User: Which sequence fits this backbone?
């Protein structure tokens, strides 16, 4: 069946431009194997110098724009941001510290975190026991 289809295509004539596009096979730039030890960084592997001025860097959040036609957002004063934002990077107690504390005296958020971490630890332990058997 495929052979008869190919024979029927022989009688069809295509312009030379289409034949070039169809018959063209392209490869990635650089052709061949990468040099040993190279990371494929491109032509300039040295440190890149930013072309933005210090004034622009201090007044805008460079690279935070996710919209195609948008602009980078401006940096606002600290009072303009919500209070919870400043506590995102606070250190939270580890599971071992939570186990040492009295569970009845823990605040709700820490108790919730303790249950989550404890469940995760038990699941890991059960999985490691099953893997050894």
Assistant:
């Amino acid at each position: 069946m495929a052979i008869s289809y190919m024979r029927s295509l022989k009688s069809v004539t295509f312009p030379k431009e289409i034949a070039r596009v169809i018959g063209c096979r392209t490869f990635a730039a650089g052709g061949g194997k990468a040099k040993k030890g190279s990371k494929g960084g491109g032509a300039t592997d040295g440190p890149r110098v930013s072309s933005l001025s210090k004034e622009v860097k201090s007044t805008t959040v460079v690279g935070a724009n996710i919209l195609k036609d948008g602009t980078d957002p401006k940096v606002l004063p600290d009072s303009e941001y919500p209070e919870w934002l400043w506590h995102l990077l606070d250190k939270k107690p580890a599971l071992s510290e939570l186990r040492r504390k009295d569970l009845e005296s823990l605040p709700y958020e820490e108790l919730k975190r303790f249950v989550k971490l404890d469940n995760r630890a038990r699941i890991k332990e059960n999985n490691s026991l099953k893997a050894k058997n």
In short: The mean pLDDT is 77. Residues 108-132 form the longest helix (25 residues). Helices lie at 2-10, 16-23, 54-59, 95-100, 108-132.
